[in-house]
Write a structure and sequence with these properties.
about 110 residues, alpha/beta, 5-stranded parallel sheet, 4 helices, 5 strands, about 35% helix, about 15% strand, globular
Amino acid sequence: GCYKKNEVIGSDNITNDGIIAIAKNCSRIQLIDLAWQENLRDEAIIALANSCPELSSIDISGCTNITDKAIFELAHKCKNLKKVIFFRCNNVTTRSISALREMNCLVKEY
């Protein structure tokens, strides 16, 4: 079954297809921790944005392949999003972070 809180911890083998499958099959996810999953790309985060409207918190620290494109999708499609944690996300700029802040989302940058 699926849980509202999902943590992807201790594995460098998480794939985009794996996260896309989770998004499609676990649409009630509210919190997901994807920190340090360096293999993940925008399409995985966009799948979460498209399929998980209840998403309220996501940690993408260390996901160095994530760009503004994915963050804009989260900002526009996840209306319950309250917290996004970034650390070493060099491809995410202030443009998308501003979009999150405009929706009163707490953005933690390190």
